[in-house]
């Protein structure tokens, strides 16, 4: 079973639109323990690095523009978080803003990493878990791993080549 079958993107009614959903599959998806992501044993090295990077920043606070000027920062916003994790995976050379991720990498859902981007926000799915800063600046605590569903209407799915 490939990872794309383990994490569902489903239609939850015409008024709700598309949603990102987590569905655990033993050996295929990461889990959250104590706020940190624990990767599946068979994850490729790039995914292990991405998860490790997400774990390093998942307690950092939110700051608009955080992580934009440089990868290492004291606080992160959505695109700073995404840039940091993709850089650690060896899939991004310079920090970028959320809207630019709409044309990042290859189109569609990735096997291990998927970027969900729209103008004004971006979040990641890594080994089936969502790494996100929230729904808006007002409700963000900073980068956090989550298995909670979230709407994806208006988002473009992209993924790093090979992942």
TrEMBL record:
<feature type="region of interest" description="Disordered">
    <location>
        <begin position="136"/>
        <end position="163"/>
    </location>
</feature>
<protein>
    <submittedName>
        <fullName>Peptidoglycan endopeptidase</fullName>
    </submittedName>
</protein>
């Amino acid at each position: 079973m490939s990872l794309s079958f383990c994490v569902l993107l489903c239609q939850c009614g015409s008024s709700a639109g598309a949603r990102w959903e987590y569905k655990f599959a033993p050996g295929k998806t990461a889990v959250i323990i104590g706020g940190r992501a624990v990767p599946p044993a068979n994850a490729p090295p790039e995914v292990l690095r991405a998860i490790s990077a997400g774990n390093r920043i998942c307690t950092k606070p939110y700051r608009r523009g955080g992580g934009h000027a440089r990868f290492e920062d004291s606080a992160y916003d959505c695109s700073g978080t995404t840039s940091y994790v993709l850089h650690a995976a060896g899939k991004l050379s310079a920090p970028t803003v959320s809207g630019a991720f709409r044309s990042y990498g290859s189109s569609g859902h990735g096997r291990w990493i998927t970027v969900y981007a729209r103008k004004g926000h971006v979040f990641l799915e890594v080994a089936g878990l969502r790494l996100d800063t929230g729904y808006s600046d007002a409700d963000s605590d900073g980068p956090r791993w989550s298995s909670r569903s979230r709407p994806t209407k208006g988002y473009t799915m992209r993924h790093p080549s090979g992942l």
